[in-house]
Amino acid sequence: xxxxxxxxxxxxxxxxxxxxxxxxxxxxxxxxxxxxxxxxxxxxxxxxxxxxxxxxxxxxx
Length: 61
Known about the structure:
By secondary structure, the protein is an all-alpha fold. The chain is built from two helices and no strands.
């Protein structure tokens, strides 16, 4: 996984956490759900990158 991908995924995750927290504080359920979705999307991207890295390592041998 490239450093750019790691940073992008982390930024998306942190942005999602901020949205979720803001939604909790303000009672905005839509914003809260959007934040949770952003976090899930970042987690999925991260998992895909890990699978790609593992595949690369496997086929290098």
